[in-house]
Amino acid sequence: MTKVMVAVDGSDYGVTAARTAVELAQACHLEGLTFVHVVSLKPGQLGTLDYPKRPDIPEQWPVFQEPLIIARTAAVEARCEVLYGYPAEQLLHYARQKQVDLIVMGSLGIGGIKEFFLGSVASRVVANAPCSVWVVRPGFRLAKEA
User: Fold this and answer.
1) Ordered mean pLDDT values, 10 residues apiece, the chain (146 residues)
2) Among 57, 83, 92, 107, which residue has the fewest nearby CB atoms (within 10 Å)?
3) How many domains is the chain built from?
4) Distances (CA, A) of 100 to 4, 59, 78, 85, 91
């Protein structure tokens, strides 16, 4: 079975990553996906401010609601995981630990010299992942709508 991890953060980028992964799961008849959200513990950041009543149940986190609707509508099985720490490091650790075959994630589209100075989760994951990484931009569709 191919293990696909999808990084979601509640942004349009994360929703596009979720939609792309679901379309891939349908096209390749994958058994399921794992949506992963990292609550950032970077200095000066509070991380996710929108916690559910039961934070121990990942499926109740607001960040997963739209990706789960996309998956369920397409009849693709999906599970959710919440991680805590530095986003790139946590995504990479999870990918290694779970022996993920593909990471699907969004890109902010920052390039050139800004990318060098600011860094980004996507570029760190691409550079250090133990598997293939598919970085998508908002609006990308694997399947063309009829």
Assistant:
1) 90 91 94 91 56 76 94 96 92 97 79 45 93 89 65
2) 57
3) 1
4) 6, 20, 14, 19, 10
Place of tokens 């799961």: 25
Q: What is the pLDDT of residue 1?
A: 63
Q: For residue 59, tell me if it sits in a domain.
A: yes
**Dihedral-angle region of residue 93 (phi above 0 means left; psi in -120 to 50 means alpha; beta otherwise):** alpha
Tokens of 23: 């379309």
Global confidence as pTM: 0.85
pLDDT at residue 19, rounded to an integer? 95
3-state SS class at 8: coil
- Other beta carbons within 10 angstroms of residue 103's beta carbon come to 27
pLDDT at res. 43: 56
pLDDT of residue 65: 95
Among the listed residues 124, 109, 25, 110, the one whose alpha carbon sits nearest the alpha carbon of residue 67: 25
Domain span at residue 19 reads 4-136
Residue 145 belongs to a domain: no
Whether the Cβ atoms of residue 94 and residue 83 lie closer than 8 Å to each other: yes
Question: Residue 132: how many CB atoms within 10 A of its CB?
Answer: 11
